[in-house]
Amino acid sequence: IDEETRAAIYRERGSIWLQLGDIGRARAELAAAAEAAEQSGSAAARADALGWLGFLDALAGEPRPPEFWERAEAFEQEADGQAIFYGPLQAHGMQLMYAERLDEAREALHKAYRRAEGFGEEHALGAIELHLVELEVRAGELESARRHAERLFQRSGQAGAEIDTSAALYAKGLVDAYQGRADDARTAIQEGIALAGEDKIFRTQCL
Q1: Pick from 150, 157, 201, 196: which is nearest to 176 by CA?
Q2: Quick one: CA dihedral 96, 102, 108, 113, positive or negative?
Q3: Cα–Cα distance between 189 and 171 in angstroms, integer?
Q4: What is the pLDDT of residues 102-141, one digit of tens each?
Q5: How far apart are CA 43 and CA 74, in angstroms?
Q6: Does the pTM exceed 0.85?
Q7: Which of 147-174 are b and which e, b meaning 16 or more Cβ less than 10 Å from the residue's Cβ?
């Protein structure tokens, strides 16, 4: 197989190990994905692999330096014609959010959102919208968080939507909880957990 395909396989395996909670195996797979992507010479493959690797390290509390993100985001810009799921712009926004640099995180996530919207990439849009809910809750901007949650829920209900409804229910429940609607929050979260279990969406059950 070619190096671009090899990178995609390693990245998918890394994302699976991440969802299963094995950070060590996830990092090894994603590092292999980045290496294969470099060998491929493809901007899209490098942006994809570096986005996931940077996202994993942000989750693990080992944030990547600015020059890592500058290079990764340059590849993303070069990858014309597609929005990358958990690409560098989105992943960098997540790192900034975890570091409580919320204004910078918002800017990065909105850039990622506009890029995904421009390409009509609903899967990426849904993930970014979900994290914008989390960001605005952290920032105390609960009305903004509610608007994002409502838009995410509307998207999830559309025919052929690539956004799982369980994630939208998590977002709704999170906002309900912070706005003091405990019963509504409990109902949304319980429905989301049940739905994620039915659909075998482990990552959403963990949320």
Answers
A1: 150
A2: positive
A3: 9
A4: 999 999 999 999 999 988 888 888 899 999 999 999 999 9
A5: 9
A6: yes
A7: bbbebbbebbeeeeeebbbbbbbbbbbb
